[in-house]
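Lab meeting prep.
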Amino acid sequence: MIAKLKQFLTSHAQAVTPEEKAKHLKLAAVSLLLEVVYADQTLNDEEASLLPDLLTSALALTLTEAQALIDEAKSIQGNATSLYEFTNEINEQCTIEQKQKLILAMWKLAYADGQLCRYEDQIIRRTAELLYLKHSELIQMRNAAINALGE
């Protein structure tokens, strides 16, 4: 599926509209969030409810649009071979602040069930590295997520 998506993106690189670019970016971001959700092999109620909430607030989507995006990203994410497939799209289109917000959302999802799985931690750290974020930014976003849980 990802190979087909890459082929499609490559063949239509010149003809990609801004709307299509925005959709590809959203799919990449949601796919990374799903990587965190599924890292511990379980989808609990906290994570299941937090993901659409994060998308509606961060991307100004309706709940229906957010759920449709999640469903589409699930099919893409399930066939992915690496995080690079998603981070490359984000690196091309996002600012440092937007990348930090994505990492913050990933941390919030990881801590949603009250515990951090080592696989969740590894995925977030690897993603931050691929997004060229500093270690201090990664820790700052983690601390902000932990503080948000306490409120």
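Slide two material, second protein:
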Amino acid sequence: MQRVLIVEDSKVVQQILRHLAAQHLNVELDFAWSLKESKALLKSNRYTLALVDLTLPDAMDAEVVQLTLSQNVPTVVLTSKIDEYSRQQMLEMGVVDYVIKDNRDSYLYAIKLVSRLLRNQGCKALIADDSMISRAVMRQMLEKQLFTVFEAQDGEQALTMLKSDHEIKLLLTDYAMPTMDGFELVKAVRNFRGRDDLVIVGLSGAGTHGLSAKFIKYGANDFLMKPFMNEEFHCRVMQTMEQLNLIAEIKDYAHRDYLTGLYNRRYFCQHMDKSLKNGPISSCLALLDLDLFKEINDKYGHLGGDSVLTQVAELLNQSFGDCLVSRVGGEEFAVLLPGESIDEARAIFDNFRSRFADNIFYIEGEALNCTLSIGIAKCEYATLSEVMRHADQALYRAKAQGRNCAMAACTKSHQVTEKCTT
């Protein structure tokens, strides 16, 4: 679990930071008022990040900043005023960034900056540069921002690494490199990694006219001219990564059902179509439909029905958290179960059906039971419509058998023995 230390001696400011942190940070938080309290907390806890005031009553010369940095804790500084000497002092000490405390928005910026840095933890970044010194400088700056950093000595090596590791989300590439320059690397990478999947920042120490425009037109998200200031590097990287995360959040929002938080029908169909394009997949598809759901809506109203649907989604996530689980209709859900035979899949879903029937649902404190009918089909057909048709047919048979039933469709290779357990 990530843990953040916030050091601030003003009661009002600390209250503001507590309030904003509760809204924007889902991490363990410790607050300290002084250098003495900070020492005690650092002695007994390990911190992912620290947000600290530059001066405290018992630490007027940035001692608390020196303390957190000496414990290898990446540190963001809060300061009420800044001059060139203080700025240089902080940068030389190695802080990640500083925020000037001049209004409420600055505190919101500080908390959002902490949130952004925490999201970087575990995120992979690749530096492509033939200069060992340049790579070392950028590695140090990126590691302060909590990235996991890899290095490549030229474009070809970088391209090979990007092809083999799709978890790399940030590429910093120099223009002038042997075997493959930065332009050629960016063009090659964009053939298989889009702007919404990988951030690319071009770099160059040459003052060639139009270099930045060419980099961006070839597919880079941004450009930095060497030598660059630490603050400029930090801001460019943070802004481009924020754009990447915002795109990911928008896509996830578009792919989710608004009520249950499960994947929606659109995402489910897109995922299945993409998977089946390469031929039949070793998975089974189950369609699960709540029995007599209209009666629940009629008795408890649509808000009561919605409450049941959200509880159903929780049960599905608990039982099939490693599978693709979607809401594909009003009271119909789909689960893609990988790597099982049709008989094994039927046994798994029949066990879930039995547990589901015993589960107690609550609507405004009133308890009730629900049942499911389930149709299961092997994903051995060429198209999604064929797989869905076979699962639907099995589901209809389950309904016809009296509901609260799990049925498996016929496979291409053999007829499955249909037995409805209730």
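Talking points for slide two:
The chain has 14 helices and 17 strands.
The radius of gyration is 28 Å.
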